[in-house]
UniProtKB/TrEMBL annotation:
Organism listed in the record: Tessaracoccus palaemonis
GO molecular function: hydrolase activity
Keywords recorded for this protein, A-Z: Hydrolase, Membrane, Transmembrane, Transmembrane helix
Membrane-spanning intervals of the chain: 21-42
All copies of domain SGNH hydrolase-type esterase, residue ranges: 71-243
PANTHER family membership: GDSL-LIKE LIPASE/ACYLHYDROLASE, PUTATIVE (AFU_ORTHOLOGUE AFUA_2G00820)-RELATED (PTHR43784), GDSL-LIKE LIPASE_ACYLHYDROLASE, PUTATIVE (AFU_ORTHOLOGUE AFUA_2G00820)-RELATED (PTHR43784:SF2)
Protein name: SGNH/GDSL hydrolase family protein
Length: 255
């Protein structure tokens, strides 16, 4: 008998042992391919899995952030009279519009008026043009400047001087924020609306138009009345702040 006969027949791929050998070999190949694929995925950070719950796989930077809105104004803007800051008109408006609020309101201030401890709680609070030069962030997306009622007495004394201050203030605001959206809210009063109030509101409206800003008036019809004042009889209560927020929101709807 030759050596092949003595050793017996070689295993064939058609027999049971041959099939087991092929299965084992195939398994090793599959495992190797899986390991190779995982290694490639690790080396290539652009290989991503779909986001959970069917949401698109986008980064937070791609989604964008809420626009920053800076509010300049007097005690109404500061929120005096509201029971909490969350109920002042600026915060109500920012929440409704989806803005991030930066409130720079200072009691007693205006286009020409400055204030102190009795008005704003600080030793000195600057006028609107001073605030624009010193405090206004240059990267704001939106600027809302409101008020003027603290300048009523100055208007009665010299309306031309106040008009010039309004013009220069809004010109400086546009120069500081050339690409921002600017919203100008006119003066208001819960009392009689006479020539001083209407004259100053008209001056603010004209200045707003000159810098391509949106103007919102609060005197026709009057946004405030005696029943919308806080206990001090001078500042809006929660309902008054809500009324101002509603008027401004309506005024900027079609801007």
């Amino acid at each position: 008998m030759d050596m092949q006969s003595r050793r017996g027949p070689r295993p064939s791929s058609e027999g049971p042992r041959g099939r087991k050998w092929l299965i084992a070999l195939s398994g090793l190949v599959v495992v190797g391919l899986v390991v190779w694929g995982v290694a490639v995925a690790i080396r290539n950070p652009l290989t991503t899995q779909p986001a959970a719950s069917g949401a698109p796989a986008t980064s937070s930077s791609a989604q964008g952030e809420r626009p920053e809105a800076v509010f300049l104004g007097d005690s109404y803007t500061q929120g005096v009279g509201a029971t909490t800051k969350d109920l002042r008109w600026t915060t109500l408006l920012a929440a409704q519009e989806g803005w991030t609020e930066v409130n720079l309101g200072r009691g007693g201030t205006g286009y020409v008026s400055t204030s102190g401890v009795s008005g704003c709680g600080l030793e000195y609070c600057p006028s609107y043009p001073e605030m624009i030069a010193e405090e206004l962030p240059a990267d704001a997306d939106i600027a809302v400047i409101a008020g003027g009622q603290n300048d009523f007495n100055a208007w009665k004394e010299d309306s031309a001087k106040v008009t010039a201050a309004i013009d220069s203030t809004l010109t400086a605001l546009r120069a500081k924020l050339p690409d921002a959206e600017i919203i100008v809210v006119g003066p208001s009063t819960p009392w009689e609306i006479g020539p001083t109030v209407t004259g100053m509101s008209a001056a603010v409206q004209a200045a707003a138009a000159s810098i391509d800003a949106t103007f919102v008036q609060l005197i026709d019809p009057p946004v405030l009345s005696a029943d919308l004042l806080a206990a001090d009889g001078a500042h809006p209560n929660d309902e008054g702040h809500a009324a101002i927020a509603q008027r401004v929101a309506a005024g900027i709807t079609n801007r």
